[in-house]
Amino acid sequence: MTVAVVGAAECDLGLTGKSVLELQSQAVTRALADAGVALSEVDGLATNGISRFSATQLADWLGIRPAWCDSTFAGGAVFEMYVARAAQAIAAGQCTTVVISYASNQRSARSRTLAGIVEEGTPEAVFEAPFRPLYPISYYAMVAQRYLHTYGLGHEALASVAVAARERALRNPAAWTYGKGPLTIDDVLAAPMISTPLGRHDCCLVTDGGGAIVLTSAARARDLPGRPVTVLGYGESLTHTGMATAPDLLRTGAVDSGRRAFARAGLTPAGIDVIQLYDAFTISVPLGLEALGFAAPGEGLHARIPHNTGGRAGLLPPRPARRPAACRGRPPAARRVRRTPGSRRPDGPGARHRRHLLQPRHRDPGGRSMIDADAWWEATRDRRLLLQRCLDCRRFQHYPRPLCTSCGGDRLDFVEAAGTGTIDSFTIAEQHTLARVRLDEGPILLTHLDGIDDPSCDQSVRLAWQALPDGRHLPVFRSADNGL
């Protein structure tokens, strides 16, 4: 059965003073009005970010009793996943009319922090949080650093993405930066640095906002007033959660999810006219265009295809916060295809930083749920860096796990690492240098760099130690050229 988007709308944007449920109500009722569908006809609902039971919460708030719901949380791309799930549910006869919605009041509630959220008991809390990364900015910053190094580019290359986004925002009265004047390359380069090489203008704006779309069968859509947008294809890919577990910073899950979506739709990148990308940071745009096949590796900044043309939030639009992006991207994308009012013609084609090693706040392993975390940290009392090794395939891995991630075997032991490796990428934030160090044994470790004034990707480093108050030590790395 063919399924189509028949309605799309956004709630109020900017600094609204409204609750999440109020903003959700706006988005849902406006999208239903756009579709010409009554609230009583909605028998499917997908949302998250409201509470532990987001779909139930919103259904109760709206006074509806859906036959199908989804409140899966899988990050910013979950709303595309909802489209796939909704299409499957409608095709299977579980429901007939689905609303997908999201809203955030992060600016009004002042609920967003640079440090982000670290969930206790996870490997990230045990092995990464002691180094105080900014979640998720530090990860994107290391991606950007690796990208610029690999392709011989400077920060000004990424700055062009923010400049283009502001140009589009100035033509959209709904954009957060509408009326605030143009942005120049020099403005971007001069802005306060957040996590090198990403400055303030490279990072997503935090505003209130959200959106909703309405899906139903193509047969039902023919009786509705608007022009339907057929769902042709979708694809998914899960990769990693930790900053150190991605084997290649420049290969994102979009490579596989895009390939699957194109295959399902029977299309290639050449058959696409306009793109709405998830774009939390300037690096996301070229990397996304390359991963999806719209540009060769390293050429994403020169892609000619119109992309992210909405200008809603005014950075890499649309942007109310990180998670709403995908849901808010759907209304302008739907309007672009439907050519409804509100759509616009697609566009035509550092400084040195003081750095020193902070005393990290060590997080204890989250109970016995963390396999071998205690053993790993206890070894640091003797200044020993342990790596887990599979006795079957002889591969090394980090973090410690109950199974080998290469062969699935469960015969594992610990081996002391040689303590040498190279810098895969790094970022300077809050006066310390965070890095991914690729050990000579293979695994990547999130760590700090100590005493390296001008680090570079692929630089050789060796292990050093920083004492913690409880007698354990934090593994850090210094230049391999420095003496002991």
Estimated radius of gyration: 24 Å
Name the overall outline. Answer: globular
The CATH topology annotation of the domain at 3-109 and 203-277 and 314-338 reads as Peroxisomal Thiolase, Chain A, domain 1
Number of E strands: 16
Helix content: 25-40%
Proportion of residues in extended strands: 15-25%
Distance between the termini: 68 Å
The averaged pLDDT comes out at: 88
Annotated CATH architecture of the domain at 3-109 and 203-277 and 314-338: 3-Layer(aba) Sandwich
Using the coordinates above, name the CATH class of the domain at 3-109 and 203-277 and 314-338: Alpha Beta
Number of helices: 13
Write out the CATH superfamily name of the domain at 3-109 and 203-277 and 314-338.
Answer: Thiolase/Chalcone synthase
Low-confidence stretches: 312-328, 343-369
Strand order of the largest sheet: 3-2-4-7-1-8
H/E series, N to C? EHEHEHEHHHHHEEEHEHHHHEEEEEEEE
Largest sheet: 6 strands, mixed
Structure explained in plain terms:
Among the domains are: 3-109 and 203-277 and 314-338, 3-Layer(aba) Sandwich (Peroxisomal Thiolase, Chain A, domain 1), CATH 3.40.47.10; 367-479, no CATH class. 27% of the residues lie in helices and 18% in strands. The protein is built from 13 helices and 16 strands. The radius of gyration is 24 Å and the shape is globular.
